[in-house]
Structure formats: C-alpha cells, structure tokens
Amino acid sequence: FNYPLLLVAHKVAPALASGNAAVLKPAQQTPLTALLLTRLLLEAGLPEHALQCLTGSGSELGPALCADERVRKISFTGSTSVGREISRVAGVKRLSLELGASCPLIVLADADLDQVAAATVTGGYVNAGQVCISVQRVLVSKPVYGDFLDALRPRVEEIPVGDPLAEETRLAALITEGEAQRVEGVIRDAVDEGARLVTGGERDGAVLRPAVVADVRPEMAIARDELFGPAVAVSRIDDVADAIAVANDSEYGLAAGVWTRDVANAHKLASKLKAGSVYVNIWGPSDAAAPFGGYKASGIGREMGHANLDAYLEVKT
Predict the structure, then answer these.
(1) Which of 54, 101, 212, 254 has a CA-to-CA distance to 273 between 20 and 30 Å?
(2) Cα separations (Å) of 309 from 14, 80, 139, 143, 163?
(3) Sign of dihedral through CA atoms 215, 221, 226, 229?
(4) Cβ atoms 275, 249 nearer than 8 A
C-alpha cells in the first residue's frame, strides 16, 4: 500500500516482459491504483487475459491464489508473517518475497554529522516512515552520540507536517489511524522501558509527528520489530566490531548504512553486514538496474535489473 504503483510495476513489468500472463492482487487498502493501471495497459493493447486484477481480502484470496498449481511463480511484497504463510501454502513453485525490515544506519566517530543527520531525515521519515528501507535504527559511536542527537533534533522538528496535497508538506498521515496508534504505542513502550523521547511522537488522528527516540537498547521492540512509521531509534556503539554485532542482531536483513571517512572501515562493514543493500555515506534507494532484496526474514530473491527478469523465466538447457 505504501507505493501502490511503483511496487506493482516492479512485478507486473517483468512478468509481462518475459511472456507470462499474470494475476495482480493489490493491497486491500489501495486497489484503485492497480485497477487503473490494468485498464490503461489493456487500452494500450495488452492482450485481454494477459493481466487480470483481482481485489479483495488478502486472507481470503491469498491462499487460493498461492496454492493453485496453475500459478508457477509468486511475487509478494508485505509483512514477514504473510510471507511465511505464502511459503507454507505455495507448494513447489518459484517465490520472490520482499518482506519486513529494521534497517540500521551506523555512524562512526569520523562521520560528517550534519550529512548523517540530513540523510537520517530523508531515510527515516519520507512517506511517514512507511518504506521498506526506512532508517529505523541509528547506531552511533559513543564519542559523537550527543553531537549527533544535537544535529538531528532540529532537522526533525523542521519537517513540515500537514495536508498531503499542500506543496510544502513533507510528512502527513499514515495509511490508517490504527497504524498511527500502533506506532505511537511502540514509542510509548520504549520510553516506559527506559528510552528517552528527544522530540515528536504526538498523534492527531492518523498523523504522528516525527519522533527521535534515544538511549534505545537493542532488545527493545522499537529496535527489533519493523516499525513502519515516522520514528528512529538511536543507540550507542563502542567500535566497528560492536556496530557489526548490533546491526546483525536482527531477524531482518534488507538494507543497512555506514557513515565514515575511513575507506577500510567502509569496506569492512559493507562486507560483514548481513543486508541485501549496504549504503556508504548515502542512504538509498538503489539504482533501478541493481538487484534489490534481503537476507534472513527480509525475504527471498531479488527485484530490479536482470535479476527481476530472470525470476519470471525458466532456464532450458
């Protein structure tokens, strides 16, 4: 639901380009975009049954679609729990699963803190944090921990919050009020467990003001579970080895970031981090030609580039 045209195109385009017919089941919250895309493709000359769009409840339609033996390939973007259920019912067929995440951004002591703060605002709060590669955990070297928070706080407080149709707005409502309540609860639980709310977190209906939560311990839910909302969790790290251990101590492995002036440390972290994408002194998204996907509970397979096309083809020797 968070990118109802882009993420559908990631699947429909390679499926059709490689000669398949496809059934498109959009997110229940955002069916109109997929229906309009299907209509436009048919009007442009796509064969009548090459693409069919089926809307409704995922819990009802999903098992029927995924278990059907006529379906030889499933591509899904969504939660890890649903991805696990798809794997259970699908049987012997090809799967591409782009699932949950809790993406870490590592800030070493030699990093440019103004640049990191700006990247955190972009990576952590765009689309109200409803992005699979949203910055969720910021792991900061102890010597610059306070300075980083000082650099981040005013930038977050300056994010224009309001009407999504207003030109100046940069953060608006989450997909539902229930989602805003869930994220608000995660922030509140972290504070109750000893974390510190630096700024934000106030909710008005489905709008949640962008939040910074500091002094987060790795075992807290705000660090371990996928948040999918406008907040970042900031934690201290001792050194590069500690950064690798804390960043990898997660069931997820979609994306990670490193901010440092030391090229050797950048290469070491890029090699050791268990993530499908590692950004160095920048934060996503990847080039459209580069394969995109995750490790561990973040999914199976890769989208984008040649890897995406290959996922819809069979090799014949």
Answers:
(1) 212
(2) 5, 23, 36, 46, 38
(3) negative
(4) no
Residue bearing tokens 């224009």: 160
> What burial class does residue 91 get, using C-beta atoms within 10 Å of its C-beta: 0-12 exposed, 13-18 middle, 19+ buried?
exposed
- Give the mean pLDDT per block of 10 residues along the chain (317 residues): 95 96 97 97 96 96 96 97 97 96 98 98 97 97 98 98 93 97 98 98 97 98 98 98 98 98 98 97 84 96 89 94
Distances (CA, A) of 247 to 256, 275, 276: 8, 9, 13
Determine the 3-state secondary structure of 234 from DSSP: strand
Closest CA to 149 of 236, 78, 219, 220: 236
Q: What pTM, to 2 d.p., does this model score? A: 0.95
Rounded CA separation 315/214 (Å): 50
Beta-carbon contacts of 244 under 8 Å, excluding residues fewer than 6 positions away, are 269, 272, 273
Before 285, cis peptide (omega within 30)?
Answer: yes
* Distance between CA atoms of residues 161 and 159, nearest Å: 6
Active-site amino acid positions: 98, 132
Report which of 195, 202, 197, 249 is spatially closest to residue 220, judged by C-alpha positions: 195
User: Which of 315, 313, 314 is closest to 15 using CA atoms?
Assistant: 313
The DSSP secondary-structure symbol of 303 reads B
Alpha-carbon gap, residue 142 to 246, rounded angstroms: 14
Distance CA 65, CA 92 (A): 14
Regarding beta strands 203-204 and 207-208, do their DSSP bridges make them parallel or antiparallel, or are they unpaired? antiparallel
